[in-house]
Amino acid sequence: SIAIESTCESNLLNINISNAQPGVAYQLFKGETPISSSINGTGSDINTIVLKSSLSAGLNGLNLKASTLDGCQTTTFDNILSYELVNVPQVLSVTGASVCNTGNATLTAQGSSEAVAYRWYDSQLNDATYVQTVGNALTLEGVNESKSYYVTTLNKNGCESLTRSEVSVQVTTVNTPEVSLNGTTLLSSSATGNQWYKNGVIIPGATASSYVVTETGVYTVAVTTNTCSVVSAEITVAITGLEFKGDQRIAIYPNPVNDWLTVEIDEDIASQVKSLRLVDTKGVLIATYNPLEISNGSLLINMANQAKGIYHLAISAADRTLIYRIIKN
User: Fold this and answer.
1) The three-state (H, E, C) secondary structure of 143-178, written as one string
2) What is the C-alpha to C-alpha distance for residues 239 and 186, in angstroms, rounded to an integer?
3) Of 50, 120, 204, 327, which residue has the fewest beta carbons closer than 10 angstroms?
4) What is the pTM of this model?
5) Could you tell me if 48 and 85 are in contact, meaning their C-beta atoms sit under 8 angstroms apart?
6) Per residue, what are the HEC states of 275-322?
7) Region of poorest pLDDT, from 6-20, 209-223, 245-259, 286-300
């Protein structure tokens, strides 16, 4: 009988011929081409080697010729042995992933035609742990930091590519922007990468760190770094004395004003007021008023010493800010 042994790492096939007859020389052929040396039988097992490079990719039928030492008689055993040569696969290309702050990332690799599975290592060390996939993709969940992984591929015999190809996850951290209001000007906590929105619609050209509000609406700012974008919480800004909620109202009179400005706030709303600020048209703070100063739903503001012109009274309550245009005679 004849048997074959091989490993993925070796370019050699070890051939064992058992009970080889003395006085007979044995040699392996592929077709009519010799692929091993001639070795004499000893009455027991003999071994010879075949270079894998002498075979073709795919299934190879091997013939064994047994000849007497004087060369007078030769017997050929056709296809006595078959061996499928499957090339060691290679990773041809990889595609990494980008994540904003925290999220899932999918890494992909493209192997040569022999590839049937992939191994994804967490380092290049020999004892690195790995995950094996049948497909050419690995999905990582909850990624929150940049990291390199290393991928190999395997053929159907389990032979692994010789090198590990690096593939990376890049995490971009973008802090959620905070929006504050100074008079009628919205301010982003981020100096760069801003884009302002009104009622969920992009405001063309509004990409500075500040935006002057001219219309009532719900405003947000999106901050983008690389390809990552994070949106702020909504801030509602009302430029006129519209209803605050349902049939509840805030009344401000007289307007225009000479001396004292009266602000009447429904008591349910008054309990939600966070701040009251009076600013000029340039956003310069003139005065602030403690919500605790609201008595029985009313607050008096002394405008007697203010110069003639336009002012804005900003009332922040609950999740919105209301801005009222005040005219001082």
Assistant:
1) ECCCEEEEEEEECCCCCECCCCEEEEEEEECCCCCC
2) 13
3) 204
4) 0.66
5) no
6) EEEEEECCCCEEEEECHHHCECCEEEEECCCCCCEEEEEEEEECCEEE
7) 245-259
- Report pLDDT digits (tens) over 170-204: 999 999 999 988 778 899 999 999 999 999 999 99
Beta-bridged to residue 181, according to DSSP, are 186
Q: How far apart are CA 287 and CA 232, in angstroms?
A: 28
Report the 10 Å Cβ neighbour count for 219.
24
* CATH of region 240-328, choose from 3.40.605.10, 1.20.140.10, 3.30.1540.10, 2.60.40.3080: 2.60.40.3080
Report DSSP state, residue 54: G
> What are the residues whose beta carbons fall under 8 Å from the beta carbon of 99, sequence distance 6 or more?
105, 143, 144, 169, 170, 171, 172
Question: Concatenated DSSP letters for 4-46?
Answer: EE--SS-SEEEEEETTPPTTEEEEEEETTEE-S--EE--SS-E
- Which CATH number is 2-85 given? 2.60.40
- Residue 248, token pair as written in the block: 């509840």
SS (H, E, C) 215-260: CCEEEEEEEEECCEEEECCCEEEECCCCCCECCECEEEECCCECCE
